[in-house]
Design a protein that fits this description.
CATH topology of the largest domain: Rossmann fold
CATH superfamily of the largest domain: P-loop containing nucleotide triphosphate hydrolases
Strand content: 5-15%
Largest sheet: 5 strands, parallel
Strand order of the largest sheet: 2-5-8-1-9
Number of domains: 2
Oligomer: single chain
Distance between the termini: 16 Å
């Protein structure tokens, strides 16, 4: 396919799509400008409650718009629960928090069959997974059997209880948390489940100025601020459809494939030094997630087309949990973040 776009950063024409049609970039930009206006409103409402942590809120919105799930890693007290609860309130969605513990059962997550003695029949009692926003708190505290109970819900957007299968209401987003400090008695997430999270975000402590505001909000006699409902869930579902319409040039698609391919075969991408450091690379799901997250990021920037900077902005959180490092890398204190940064810096930008 020939590209009619002279400059990816400022498209001047209507480039051809892979389906043979044409994209009117100007019209698409106008549509995105109009439909993405609610992003500022959400940020304003969330900003009333969440001080700092702009990166976490941005990534949460990317996961929501790209129809993905997010895994957060950070010490307790960084407003993870408050963030997703506030987002659910802002868009009038239902929310449930599941505290993962070693004695948790799959039925505690998805629900179970209850026998009714009067009617002499079984009925379905739905679990907390039947909500728009799910907080899986300290997901690595529960054994693999319970962790896998979320797999069908996260990937297929459905839950099977007994002989019945129930579709989950959209939007559906799982935000799982892990505590990186206390690892005793935990069950590390298997690669198959980690891969189902679109993003993995590592959180840091707030700045000194942000922490002063956090103290002020929590000890104020006025009371803790609360976000207002400004959207309906139907508007998020509509926005997800518009995000998919954002134009992605074939050069950008090739760029995404080059980055993911470099995590699998670094030597072919002139990164021979990384060959002994990488145990396994990203799956095709990494490429899909990188494409969708890039579109969502462009939408949040109120742009109707994806540029390389969009891909680079989300690549770390897409790949962090999908690239495995070897014992040699660990022995040399080389982190997966260091490897991904080198790949992003070395792969040719279109």
């Amino acid at each position: 396919m020939e590209n009619n776009m002279e400059d990816l950063n400022t498209p001047q024409s209507s480039p051809s799509t892979s389906g043979g049609g044409a994209v009117d970039i100007q019209a698409l930009n106008e549509l995105i400008q109009q439909e993405s206006a609610f992003i500022d409103a959400i940020n304003m409402e969330m900003g009333k409650v969440i001080i700092g942590q702009h990166y976490m809120l941005e990534r949460l919105m990317i996961a929501l718009l790209a129809n993905g799930h997010i895994l957060l890693e950070g010490v307790p007290g960084l407003a993870k629960t408050l963030a997703i609860n506030s987002l659910a309130t802002t868009i009038d969605g239902s929310f449930s928090r599941i505290q993962f513990t070693p004695d948790l059962l799959p039925a505690d997550v998805i629900g179970t069959m209850i026998y009714n003695q009067k009617q002499e029949s079984f009925s379905v009692k739905k679990g907390p997974v039947f909500n728009n926003f799910i907080l899986a708190d300290e997901i690595n505290r529960a054994p693999a059997k319970v962790q896998s109970a979320l797999l069908e819900a996260m990937q297929e957007r459905q839950v099977t209880i007994g002989d019945s299968t129930f579709k989950l209401e959209e939007p559906f987003l799982v935000m799982a948390t892990q505590n990186p400090i206390d690892q005793e008695g935990t069950y590390p997430l298997p690669e198959a489940q980690v891969d189902r999270f679109m993003l993995k975000v590592v959180l840091d402590y707030p700045t000194r100025e942000d922490e002063k505001l956090i103290i002020r909000n929590n000890v104020s006699s006025v009371g803790f601020p609360k976000p207002n409902k400004i959207l309906k869930t139907a508007q998020i579902n509509k926005a997800r459809g518009i995000v998919k319409q954002i134009y992605m040039d074939e050069k950008i698609e090739r760029y995404i494939v080059d980055i993911v391919h470099a995590t699998r075969n670094p030597a072919e991408c002139k990164l021979e030094n990384l060959e002994p450091l990488i145990g396994f690379g990203g799956s095709p799901r990494a490429s899909i997630s990188l494409g969708m997250a890039s579109k969502a990021y462009a939408f949040m920037q109120k742009r109707g087309y994806v540029v390389p900077e969009d891909v680079r902005a989300v690549a770390m959180d897409i790949l962090r949990h999908r690239v495995g490092i070897t014992y040699e890398a660990e022995a040399e204190n080389i982190t997966v973040e260091t490897i991904i940064k080198e790949i992003i810096n070395k792969v040719d930008v279109p």
